[in-house]
Amino acid sequence: MQKPHEGAPEATRERILDAALDLFGERGLTGTTVRDIATRAKVNVAAISYHFGGKDELYRGVAGMVIGSIEARVRNRVADLLDKPPSDPAAALAALEEFGGAIVDVIVGPQEMRRVARFIIREQMQPTFAFEILYDVLTRLHGAATRLFALAADLDPEGAEAKLRVFLMIGQVLFLRIAEAAVLRRMQIERYDEAFLGEVKILVRQNVRAMVAAAREGRT
Q1: What pLDDT, in 10s, does the model give residues 77-117?
Q2: pLDDT digit string (tens) for 132-165?
Q3: Structural domain of residue 38, as residue ranges?
Q4: Which pLDDT belongs to residue 1?
Q5: Which of 154, 112, 130, 110 is CA-nearest to residue 62?
Q6: Which residues contact 12 (CB under 8 A, 6 or more apart)?
Q7: More exposed terminus of the chain, fewer Cβ within 10 Å: N or C?
Q8: CA distance 142 to 127
């Protein structure tokens, strides 16, 4: 296939992914056409075929990009906790609190995460062939947090209770991203600024400690 003339290849590829992220998030896979993406990205249709082969492969590329970015940002903050987890309950609790703070910084802080969240939420509600890409990364992050929680609370890391408690722990943070419009209005603020995010991280840490304490008490 002859290479389309659309400027630097990497820049063209990034423009296509950027446009596809918005459109797939807004309209879904079936509601978005290759021509829609080409128009938004200001490239010709042939450029999408050249770089991705077609709409399905482009969708997989977007899924890999968004979830890979989340994992990379989390690992940038807490790679040591994921690669070399602590071996005692107190250290595991401290690591879990740090993990919660990292999720706030990665998911809630950056404004561009609005676009990413829209894509991921749609994929959760209407899974496609790309769901496994998202699931693999989410499972790694959830699994790491579950092992920390289980150690801190003396639970089975493969048990339902530990897994569910970690889903609820992460969910409290995700709600701020998913329901941003409602949260901003109810809190009477214009945006998630540094002061607000700092308060959120304090409360998330408190909630993590409370959840671990509740799990411990439930075993006595």
Answers
A1: 888 887 888 999 999 999 999 999 999 999 999 988 999 99
A2: 999 999 999 999 999 999 999 999 999 999 999 9
A3: 1-53
A4: 42
A5: 130
A6: 6, 41, 43, 47, 51
A7: C
A8: 19
Q: Which of 202, 25, 22, 213 is nearest to 104 (CA)?
A: 202
Confidence band, pLDDT 50/70/90 cuts, at residue 218: confident
Closest CA to 55 of 32, 79, 82, 77: 32
In this structure, what DSSP letter does residue 3 have? P
Report the domain count for the chain.
2
Chain segment 45-75, per-residue pLDDT in tens? 999 999 999 999 999 999 999 999 999 999 8
> What are the backbone dihedrals phi and psi of residue 59, each rounded to the nearest 5 degrees, phi first?
-60, -45
Torsion sign, CA atoms 8, 14, 17, 20: negative
Domain boundary among 11, 26, 53: 53
Half-sphere exposure (Cβ direction) of 160: Cα atoms closer than 13 Å: 0
Residues 76, 132 contacting (CB under 8 angstroms): no
Do 30 and 74 fall into the same domain? no
What are the structure tokens assigned to 100, written together? 């919660």
Task: Report d(CA 194, CA 161) in Å as an integer.
Answer: 33
Question: Could you tell me if 104 and 36 lie in one domain?
Answer: no
